[in-house]
Design brief:
The complex is a heterodimer of chains A (185) and B (320). Chain A is mainly alpha-helical and 185 residues long. Chain A contains 7 helices and no strands. Chain A has one domain: de novo design (two linked rop proteins) (Up-down Bundle). A 9-stranded antiparallel sheet of chain B has the order 1-2-3-4-9-8-5-7-6, with helices on both faces. The chains are: A mainly alpha (185), B alpha+beta (320).
């Protein structure tokens, strides 16, 4: 009898540990996702300032600036589906890269203190977004390992936890890094 | 930084005459050291003959004290010569390596900075340092010195109470202004648990709560060498970009010793274990020796090179 109780207690404890660790991993993923959101918001906040500063100098890139502003408005409106969101972000990055390359044609702008400051902030935000994504991917990998490896996969099956996708860095963004390098020469 | 190849020229024009003068002092010191040594030895022998053995262990103790006194005298009588070498030769060499550098032979990185780095968890009961070098390499302010840090343990009680000091760090402690702003702290420590126990080791690491959260990074080679703790998963990754991880790995290979890094208050702290005592002169062998002097330059170049190694002069973010 005593053995049965001990075994049951150990088993129960084991289940509790598995359950808690899975819940914790899921929460970590959600938390990491929220931090990407926070960083993206920083990026949106920068756009109007940047547009305002470069507007005075840039004569031929009006359409690029309007596009950027429109994309931002869309992004902060909030009512977009998850997949569209990723696409929208990619568009913002792409048009920003275009803008940064265009700056090359305006030596006055390149020397503007205000612009340099904003450019630094932009680089900072980009690196923070990339860090947030890496943190998210690390959290998802830990979570996925929990969901797929034995014995926690049994618990995950009962709790209906499913594998989640990693945040992949789109091709455009890798090119954006190159544009950044070119710009900082 | 001056060209390293020019050093031969610098050595001949700027250092050689001073070295020759100092070498004359060295010979004098050598003679004095031998004299003190012989006198101390003779006294110990006389003590052995004259002091009656009846007083028990006191005889040995008296002889031992005489020996210690001899060593102290030797160290005192060579002190001026050692200090002269540092101010005249090492001081000039630091100026050659980079004009902005200032050298303080008896200074050190402050204990407060050492503690702020939070690299070591032991209490710092004995803190000694020398060879302090400070300056600005392009945009990056740096300082470093040799440090020996010890913690105290006691055993026994009452009259049998003994204090014992254990060294937990000996080497170069390097502080530089980091090129990004950050508010949290991140520790990069040599990975001993994971090397020994593999995946299980990683579990052990994540249980050491006092260090903060374990930060798992995506570079497998980096993860094998180091374990990273911090109090913000995102900001630690913001500091340790994929390229910085590579650079730290290369840096570790270059020194081939235990290295610890911490990122606190927008600064990077680096502790490099070194058995060798750097920037010292020698006795009983001529110091008018190019390769002997060159070795100091090599270490200096290596140390100043940390700024380049970790890309600290790249200021494309908001920090100027």
């Amino acid at each position: 009898m005593i053995y049965a109780i001990v075994i049951a207690a150990v088993l129960l404890l084991f289940i509790v540990v598995l359950y808690n660790s899975l819940v914790r991993k899921k929460n970590d993923v959600e938390n990491a996702f929220a931090s990407i959101d926070a960083m993206l918001k920083k990026r949106y906040d920068l756009i109007p300032n940047l547009v305002e500063t470069v507007k005075e100098y840039m004569k031929h890139e009006k359409s690029l600036l309007t596009e950027l502003t429109e994309l931002r408005t869309k992004a902060i409106s909030g009512d977009i589906a998850e997949d569209d969101r990723v696409e929208l972000e990619n568009k913002i990055v792409k048009s920003m890269a275009g803008l940064m390359v265009a700056v090359e044609n305006y030596p006055d702008l390149k020397a503007n203190q205000n612009f340099l400051q904003l450019q630094g902030s932009w680089n900072e935000v980009e690196e923070q977004i990339s860090a947030a994504r890496r943190a998210f991917n690390a959290a998802v990998t830990t979570y996925n390992n929990g969901v797929e490896t034995f014995p926690s996969n049994i618990m995950a099956g009962i709790m209906n936890y499913k594998r989640r996708r990693l945040f992949e860095i789109p091709e455009e963004e890798r090119q954006n890094v190159k544009a950044k390098e070119l710009f900082n020469k | 930084m001056s060209n390293y190849k020019d050093f031969k020229d610098f050595y001949e024009k700027q250092l050689l005459s001073d070295l020759k003068l100092l070498d004359r002092d060295r010979k004098k010191v050598d003679r004095r050291v031998i004299l003190i040594f012989v006198i101390a030895l003779v006294i110990i022998l006389i003590e052995g003959k004259l002091i009656p053995s009846e007083i028990g262990p006191w005889k040995g103790i008296i002889q031992f004290i005489t020996g210690i006194a001899g060593f102290i005298l030797i160290s005192l009588s060579s002190k001026k010569y050692r200090l002269n070498f540092k101010t005249k030769i090492i001081g000039k060499i630091t100026g050659f390596v980079d004009e902005s550098l200032t050298y303080m032979p008896e200074g050190s990185v402050s204990k407060a900075e050492f503690l702020k780095s939070a690299i070591f968890q032991h209490s710092c009961d004995s803190y000694k340092g020398e060879d302090h070098i400070q300056g600005k390499i392009d945009k990056t302010a740096i300082e470093f010195s040799e440090i020996v840090a010890k913690y105290k343990t006691t055993s026994g009680t009452g009259s049998k109470r003994k204090e014992h000091y254990t060294t937990y760090f000996k080497g170069i402690f390097f502080v530089a202004d980091f090129n990004k702003h950050f508010k949290t702290y991140t520790l990069v420590l040599p990975d001993t648990a994971e090397k020994l126990f593999g995946k299980f080791g990683q579990k052990l690491q994540s249980m050491t709560l006092t260090r903060g959260e374990l930060i798992k990074l995506e570079d497998p080679e980096f993860e094998k060498e180091f374990c990273v703790y911090g109090n913000d998963q995102v900001e630690s990754r913001y500091i340790l970009s994929t390229s910085l991880m590579r650079r730290i790995l290369e840096f570790k290979k270059k020194w081939n010793t235990k290295v610890y890094l911490s990122f606190v208050d927008s600064k990077v702290y680096i502790a490099i274990w070194l058995k060798k005592n750097l920037f010292e002169t020698r006795l009983f062998k001529t110091i008018v020796d190019y390769s002997f002097i060159e070795e100091n330059v090599k270490y200096l170049v290596l140390l100043i090179g940390i700024v380049e190694d970790l890309n600290l002069n790249t200021r494309i973010w908001t920090k100027e």
